[in-house]
């Protein structure tokens, strides 16, 4: 049968052989204009046709109060294409992944990680989508290390 693999202390089995397909799904599209124009005066039909011809059909497109666009894509191919976008029809634009919608936060309490550095935890959990780790301070004394960590994760699609 073979030797049994030892898993993490939590008992959860982690498949390290599979490759996660993480890609940004939310993109912020801002109009480039010298007179601070936004998408408020632009036809929604023009925007939809320009997006569809550039990246295919997006999962959702919303106009924000600021007049900028929030576009949600479905595939890594669409994510790649939308980042290359320089204009919608004849309107020059800048496209960047949304700062907060493409990640989530979580808190994990694990006594076994008490003596591990934040950097090492980040490196070890990178394959699971962890991009940032911060130790939570419960008391203001520097000698006390809490076993709680705040994690920022890539959204898994």
Any overview of this molecule?
This protein is of the alpha+beta class and 157 residues long. It folds into 2 domains: 26-97, RRM (RNA recognition motif) domain (Alpha-Beta Plaits, 2-Layer Sandwich); 103-156. The chain is built from 3 helices and 8 strands, in the order βαββαβββαββ. The chain has helices at residues 44-55, 76-83, 118-124, and strands at 26-31, 60-63, 69-72, 87-88, 91-97, 103-109, 130-135, 148-154. It has a 5-stranded antiparallel sheet with strand order 2-3-1-5-4. It has a 3-stranded antiparallel sheet with strand order 6-8-7. A hairpin with a 5-residue loop joins β2 and β3.
SSE layout:
Elements: E1 26-31, H1 44-55, E2 60-63, E3 69-72, H2 76-83, E4 87-88, E5 91-97, E6 103-109, H3 118-124, E7 130-135, E8 148-154
Antiparallel strand pairs: 1-3, 1-5, 2-3, 4-5, 6-8, 7-8
**Can you identify the CATH superfamily of the largest domain?**
RRM (RNA recognition motif) domain
* Highest CATH level, the class of the largest domain: Alpha Beta
If you average the pLDDT, what whole number results?
82
Provide the low-confidence segments as ranges. Answer: none
What is the CATH architecture descriptor of the largest domain?
2-Layer Sandwich
Main sheet overview: 5 strands, antiparallel
Shape: elongated
Give the DSSP E fraction (strand runs of 2 or more residues).
25-35%
What name does CATH use for the topology of the largest domain? Alpha-Beta Plaits
Series of H and E elements = EHEEHEEEHEE
Portion in helices:
10-25%
Give the oligomeric state of the chains in this entry, treating copies of one chain as homo and distinct chains as hetero: single chain
Gyration radius, in Å: 21 Å
Terminal CA distance reads 35 Å
Q: Supply the helix-strand structural class.
A: alpha+beta
DSSP, total strands? 8
Strand order of the largest sheet: 2-3-1-5-4
Number of helices: 3
Total domain units: 2
């Amino acid at each position: 049968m073979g030797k049994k693999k030892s898993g993490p202390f939590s008992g959860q089995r982690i498949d390290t052989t599979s490759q996660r397909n993480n890609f940004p799904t939310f993109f912020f599209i801002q109009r480039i204009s010298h007179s601070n124009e936004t998408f408020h005066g632009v036809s929604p039909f023009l925007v939809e046709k320009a997006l569809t011809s550039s990246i295919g059909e997006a999962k959702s497109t919303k106009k924000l109060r600021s007049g900028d666009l929030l576009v949600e894509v479905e595939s890594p191919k669409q994510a790649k294409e939308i980042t290359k976008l320089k204009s919608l029809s004849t309107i020059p634009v800048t496209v960047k992944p949304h700062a907060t919608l493409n990640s989530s936060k979580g808190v994990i309490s694990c006594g076994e990680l008490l003596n591990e550095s934040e950097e090492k935890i980040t490196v070890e959990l990178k394959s699971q989508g962890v991009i940032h780790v911060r130790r939570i301070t419960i008391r203001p004394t520097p000698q006390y290390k809490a076993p709680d960590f705040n994690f920022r994760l890539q959204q898994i699609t």
